[in-house]
Design goal:
heterotrimer, A mainly alpha (about 375), B alpha/beta (about 425), C mainly alpha (about 290), A: about 375 residues, two-stranded antiparallel ribbon, B: about 425 residues, 7-stranded mixed sheet, globular
Chain lengths: ~375, ~425, ~290
């Protein structure tokens, strides 16, 4: 365990160095490129949040985009109110809403917005989790329920046009004012803000996976029944990790709304949700760090490919992803771990074995 | 046999994608050159080539690209070529925002042409405003917007409905059934329609909205049967409209008694609906493919020669096409050393031009004066124009909202 | 009252389309536990195959059905051989792999045939309505309802009355032991996957006259079809039919009582609750687990 922890810490340090020093230097502190990159970093957070529930606890959450969307709407509501001054947000007028809905009122406060962006998704994630895991629902059914929830939630957001802006989402947002600092999203400082959020999230994620809590989650992933016989309340553990994962997705959503300066119901679409799963799978679902790297790499590839191959880039992404699923089931992380193990085979003690492949086949028989 | 067929196609598709990519290194290196480019003028094309709205948007892309090619073939502007930088926003508003930034900030485009849906325009709008760039939006839309950084080429509610509604009420009756997709455009159009109907003594028997992409209309058709309206007033878009039209036809509802009158159905949708199912119903638009004018003949001819004989032009692709020419005409008026998005905008205001639909004019509020028409679809997939405005209609983005007006200074409240 | 009957028929016709799409998915899922997210793309392939047969050979929708079935089944067979077969030990990964396949198929069609929507003519002899009092039923929709029942019947016969069906059921119950008895499980899986894909192709052919044929048409359908399968219960044909019926009728009912959007939300919420309390569906079969 200890050596694995030290590998992860080294990995995180390298990653942090690359993100915080390497990338800005590579782009020559160019504001536009860094803004694009901060978008990838915020997506890395939602990917690593999924790795917590999927990789660690074996719960494939296809509704991750819903909680991500909640975070982005929380932030966008705050900024929209700011942009509207004393008046109503413009789209409410378009939908014949005359007074500010009660739901919106507290979002005048930035502190409330921050809390809501983290806690509302966490609470919703928790409710769904309690609902599911008390009934010992597992495997494919978790995927189905979260997927159905996602579809219903997105429909609801689009339907409630007067409150949410419907299909158009919330646009025309004011810049965020953070302790007197007006956030310019095209600044190096903003890049570091997003980068810092990612690092904190990753450290938190690494702490969780290496704690006893993480160990029990992995035990649940391998065999929930046996873990239950050991006296652990499996449902509670699953619920807590679902909450945490949803809260982190909310954080990612808030940052994403800042970076793109709007919130859209497409953040809650099935394809976006599956995209998150893809990033996580490409990086390696077992490690939060790898999942974050996966999100950054896939989005980087998408950005570059779509630049060069305007017509064919979707196809290439599909093929790339398919190859990863087929030949690198544990993602880039798995390849690295296996290579290390092969290199170390000569040495006497093979402690890497304990990070063995997830026995997915066990969850569903 | 079939399998080989399929494999062959997949292989061909793969190679095409690759070839498409490889034939574009000029574009790529061009993008890098943009910072120091003096010998050409970078313009962005931001239409979805993949995803749900690609069905319509790729035709806009084609029309705009063709206009650029025509201009370049004729010697460009001030001896400089227009350099199209193509991005695929994949029908996703977030990607729109991202790609718009790329075009406006990194590639230093002086103008970007793009969008079909309202949500994608709304995603790009804040970026165009912050960067003080110019976004040319060819689609009909809901109005109630007054940006100084968007050139609106499509029809507004007043340009689609003012001539249409009195005619509908007179010829078919006063009971309207409204059906649209659930987003802001249908709702605003229906708002305006209600105002006009009130003046005309008409009534709305039912108003309903279905989710985007909704494809089973059996319930809706039952309701229509039960309500027996005189006119079905639709603002369904894309595949929802296609599915609705086909199921309406399959249910044998008679266009002579209950015509469907659409603000969004164009030649593209009719091609998918099939002429037979579309025949007898109406659309209101400033342009139809069959319109008789020298400009339109050239446009349709060139378009077919470039993209295939069975391709169609329609009222949004026409606007995508003429907007490039408006852009070019504005550039012509400018000093080549002093080209900026705002200079282009200021030069474009008040400009007239012969478009395929007739002589159009850019208003000081950056919307376009157009020639409204009502067409009845024929079984060959073309519309017969049965009502035509005898004057050019000015754009009123706030027609439904007295006390507000969009002017050259932006939104004015009185 | 007329509205009730008409709406009940509408529900039935929604159900028949759901059923015909879900059936292939149910067979694939029930047999090998593969969640085939590319199923919507098989439906799309079926629609495009119909379009191609109609445009190039002049075949009608109904006459093209057997060919469409074979064509899409062949595509499914290849995909199973090349990709899905490697993933039987990792059922959750099949969700991801088949999603990737879906993207590729969509793009292949888009690049090969074009992004614009295609027109497929419906059969002339099925135009028109049957009217019983105020109840109006479109002939084509009646045909689709009948055909969906026919497919269920054929599939049921295939599963219970043929040697292949026996092998299939054996493999479902215990792959290892069936292999000891000389059943080639791999072959059974390939054929089953191809059959499921072929059914999706038929679904695509049948819905083209009503819907619009575009590369993305399958994406929206697969989620609904998948929910039908889960609600019906694993691998249960009767369950799938009942679930399609239930969801179709409830959708139609909500659509008239509230509206289409809120109705859909209500149906989804209902499904979530149903899965919570009957995770193995309405008609769980005893074969698995």
């Amino acid at each position: 365990m200890n050596s694995r922890l030290s590998y992860d810490i080294i990995g995180l340090a390298v990653f942090a160095a690359v993100i915080l020093f390497g990338v800005p230097a590579f782009f020559g502190y160019d504001a536009f490129e860094l803004n694009t990159f901060s978008r990838y970093l915020s997506l890395a957070i939602v990917s690593m949040a999924l790795a917590l529930s999927w990789g660690t606890a074996g719960l494939l959450n296809l509704g991750q985009a819903a909680t991500f969307g909640m975070g982005s709407y929380a932030m966008a509501m705050h900024l929209k109110l700011k942009a509207s001054g004393d008046g109503l947000p413009d789209f409410m007028g378009w939908n014949n809403v005359d007074t500010l809905p009660i739901l919106w009122v507290p979002f005048h406060s930035f502190a409330f917005t921050l809390l809501a962006g983290l806690l509302v998704p966490a609470a919703v994630g928790g409710l769904i989790a309690v609902f599911m895991f008390r009934a010992r629902i597992a495997g494919v059914f978790v995927a189905v329920i979260t997927l159905a929830f996602l579809v219903a939630f997105q429909l609801l957001v689009i339907e409630q046009q007067g409150f949410t802006g419907g299909q158009n989402g919330l646009t025309g947002l004011a810049p965020l004012v953070l302790f007197g600092w007006t956030v310019d999203i095209y600044s190096v400082a903003f890049y570091y803000l997003v980068g810092a959020c990612l690092m904190v999230a990753l450290m938190f994620g690494l702490y969780l996976t290496h704690s006893k809590f993480g160990l029990i989650l992995r035990a649940i992933r391998e065999d929930p029944d046996r873990t239950r016989y050991f006296g652990y309340n499996v449902a509670n553990y699953q619920t807590v990790i679902f909450c945490i994962s949803a809260g982190l997705a909310g954080l990612a959503g808030m940052l994403y709304a800042l970076v793109l300066e709007f919130a859209s119901p497409t953040y809650m679409s099935v394809s976006f949700s599956l995209a998150i799963v893809i990033w996580c799978a490409v990086g390696g679902r077992e490690s939060v760090l790898a999942a974050a790297v996966g999100a950054i790499l896939v989005n980087l590839a998408e950005g570059r490919l779509s630049d060069v191959f305007v017509e064919g880039w979707h196809m290439m992404l599909g093929v790339m992803f398919l190859l990863v699923v087929m030949f690198m089931p544990r993602g880039i992380y798995g390849v690295i771990v296996d290579t290390f193990r092969a290199l170390r085979r000569t040495s006497a003690c093979d402690d890497a074995a304990q990070s063995g492949a997830p026995l997915n086949s066990k969850q569903e028989s | 046999m079939r399998r080989r067929d399929f494999l062959g196609r997949a292989g061909a598709a793969g190679t095409m994608g690759l070839a498409g990519g490889l034939s574009m290194p000029a574009l790529l290196s061009g993008a890098r050159r943009a910072y120091a480019a003096e010998d050409d003028i970078p313009v962005g094309l931001l239409f979805s080539l993949t995803g749900a709205v690609a069905v319509v948007e790729h035709t806009l892309h084609d029309a705009a690209l063709m206009a650029i090619e025509e201009i370049n073939a004729a010697g460009g502007v001030h001896g400089k070529q227009l350099r199209p930088i193509i991005e695929d926003p994949a029908s996703d508003p977030a990607t729109y925002a991202d790609r718009a930034r790329r075009l406006m900030i990194r590639d230093k485009c002086v103008s970007v042409f793009g969008s079909y849906t309202s949500s994608s325009r709304q995603a790009v709008l804040p970026i165009a405003e912050q960067r003080n760039n110019l976004y040319w939006y060819p689609t009909l839309y809901e109005g109630r917007e007054c940006s100084r950084n968007i050139m609106y080429g499509g029809a507004l509610a007043n340009q689609q409905q003012d001539i249409l509604l009195p005619w509908l009420v007179e010829n078919f009756g006063k009971k309207f059934y409204m059906i649209g997709n659930n987003y802001v455009y249908p709702k605003e159009e229906n708002n305006y329609c209600r105002i006009l109907l009130e003046q005309l003594g008409g009534e709305v028997v039912h108003e309903e909205y279905v989710p985007m992409g909704h494809s089973d209309f059996s319930s809706v058709i039952n309701r229509i049967r039960a309500e027996e309206p005189d006119v079905i007033f639709t603002t369904l878009v894309g595949d929802s409209d296609v599915a609705f039209a086909r199921q309406y036809h399959a249910a044998e509802l008679d266009p002579e008694k209950m015509p469907v009158c659409s603000l969004t159905r164009s030649e593209v949708e009719v091609k998918a609906i099939g002429g037979e199912a579309a025949a007898g119903h109406f659309s209101s638009a400033p342009y139809f493919m069959g319109h008789q004018s020298a400009e339109n003949e050239t446009f349709v001819e060139n378009y077919k020669a470039r993209f295939g004989a069975d391709e169609v032009t329609h009222f949004v692709s026409e606007a995508a096409y003429f907007q490039v020419y408006q852009f070019k005409a504005a550039l012509d008026k400018l000093d080549p050393a002093n080209i900026s998005p705002t200079a282009i905008r200021d030069a474009a205001v008040g400009m007239t031009m012969m478009a395929p639909q007739g002589e159009i004019l850019i208003d000081e509020n950056l919307h376009t004066h157009l020639w409204p028409k009502v067409g009845q679809w024929q079984s060959d997939g073309q519309a017969k124009v049965i009502l035509q405005s005898d004057e050019r209609i000015s754009p009123k983005p706030y027609a439904a909202y007295p006390g507000q007006d969009c002017t050259g200074e932006g939104l004015v409240k009185t | 009252m007329d509205v009730v009957f008409n709406q009940a028929f509408a529900g039935l016709s929604i159900a028949s389309i759901l059923l015909i799409i879900a059936l292939g998915l149910a067979i694939i899922y029930g047999t090998m536990g593969v969640i085939n997210l590319a199923h919507g793309e098989f439906v799309m392939l079926g629609a495009y195959a119909t379009w191609a047969l109609q445009t190039h050979l002049g075949l009608g929708v109904i006459t093209a059905l057997p060919l469409v079935f074979l064509a899409v089944a062949a595509a499914g067979w290849v995909i199973e051989k090349v990709i899905v077969q490697r993933l039987y030990t990792r059922p959750l990964d099949t969700i991801l792999a088949t999603w990737g396949i879906g993207i590729i198929l969509q793009q292949a069609i888009r690049l090969g045939v074009g992004a614009e929507s295609k027109f497929v003519r419906g059969p002339q002899w099925l135009s028109g309505n049957v009217e019983i009092g105020a109840l109006v039923m479109s002939n084509y929709r009646l045909f689709v309802i009948a055909f969906s029942l026919f497919i269920v019947a054929v599939t049921w016969l295939l599963m219970t009355r043929t040697e292949f069906g026996m092998k299939l059921r054996a493999v479902i119950q215990n792959r290892g032991i069936s292999e000891c008895y000389g059943i080639e499980a791999k072959k059974v899986y390939s054929v089953t996957f191809a059959y499921g894909a072929g059914l999706a192709g038929i679904a695509g052919a049948l819905i083209t006259p009503l819907f619009s044929t575009i590369p993305t048409m399958g994406t929206g359908l697969v989620v609904d079809a998948f929910l039908v399968v889960i609600v019906g219960g694993l691998g249960s044909l009767v369950g799938t039919a009942a679930a399609a019926m239930l969801i179709g009728e409830v959708t139609a009912l909500f659509s008239i009582v509230i509206n289409d959007t809120l109705g859909r939300i209500a149906v989804l919420a209902g499904i979530i609750i149903l899965i919570r309390f009957r995770p193995r569906g309405l008609f769980p079969s005893d074969t698995r687990r």
